């Protein structure tokens, strides 16, 4: 169940996926509507509160970024634990990035089996290298509730994705 804060129910939403797919870029696009091409990768966990309206209800998404620790496969159980939704990010120009998601899907299912799974193909502004069939197979095979394409660079799809996640979480709660 969601904790209640003054901005309505609080849902924990975590970002997962290979290093380089754009998790931190999605995080910053959602947080401050910015994109920094030369951003230095930092190591550590980072989070912020995103306030979203669902109809006339205010909800808070506590959004978490691994901020680089996935490189060392050292995402802790606490990162997964208590999450209400997990955003699995791959990059549309890097076919291996969708296959590697299986690793984090299994971890999520172990530590937070009830969490909603969201599949996000980022870098939509680049040329896609992954077929719709591959995406669809991964989506249905892993029971993701939503599959979307985004670009953290142009901002396309980012706001909509978090709005939809908030709606889905309110419906589920
Ligand atoms: P992370 O390791 O998953 O956190 O990935 P980053 O957010 O650090 O992004 C890795 C690289 O991809 C950086 O050079 C970003 O500028 C770039 N990047 C992230 N999102 C996009 C996008 O939507 N389009 C393009 N063209 N590049 C992106
Ligand atoms: Mg990062």
User: How much strand content do the residues show?
Assistant: 25-35%
What do the pLDDT scores average to?
Answer: 91
Termini gap: 7 Å
Counting helices, strands and paired strands, the structural category is: alpha/beta
How does the major sheet shape up? Answer: 7 strands, mixed
Q: Treating each run of at least 4 consecutive H or I residues as one helix, how many helices?
A: 6
Model description:
The protein has helices at 23-32, 77-80, 96-99, 101-111, 132-141, 158-172; strands spanning 3-5, 8-16, 46-54, 57-65, 85-91, 116-122, 146-149. It is α/β, with parallel strands linked by helices and 173 residues long. It is globular and about 40 Å long. The longest helix is centred in the C-terminal third of the chain and has 15 residues, at 158-172. Strands 1, 2, 3, 4, 5, 6 and 7 form a seven-stranded mixed sheet that branches. The protein is built from six helices and seven strands. Helices cover 31% and strands 28% of the residues. The termini are close together. Residues 23-24, 41, 67-68 line the site of magnesium ion. Guanosine-5'-diphosphate (GDP) is lined by residues 17, 19-25, 37, 41, 122-123, 125-126, 151-153.
């Amino acid at each position: 169940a969601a904790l209640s804060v003054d901005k309505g129910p609080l849902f924990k939403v975590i970002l997962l996926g290979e290093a380089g797919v754009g998790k931190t870029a999605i995080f910053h696009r959602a947080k401050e509507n910015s994109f920094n091409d030369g951003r230095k990768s930092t190591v550590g966990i980072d989070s912020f509160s995103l306030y979203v309206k669902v109809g006339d209800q205010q909800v808070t998404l506590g959004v978490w970024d691994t901020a680089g620790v996935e490189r060392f496969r050292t995402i802790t159980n606490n990162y997964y634990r208590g999450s209400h939704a997990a955003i699995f990010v791959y990059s549309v120009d890097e076919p291996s990035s969708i296959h590697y998601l299986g690793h984090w899907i299994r971890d999520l299912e172990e530590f937070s089996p009830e969490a909603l799974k969201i599949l996000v193909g980022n870098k939509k502004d680049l040329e896609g290298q992954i077929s719709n069939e591959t995406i669809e197979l991964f989506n249905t095979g892993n029971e993701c509730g939503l599959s979307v394409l985004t670009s953290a660079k142009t901002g396309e799809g980012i706001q909509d994705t978090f709005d939809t996640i908030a709606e889905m979480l309110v419906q589920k709660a």
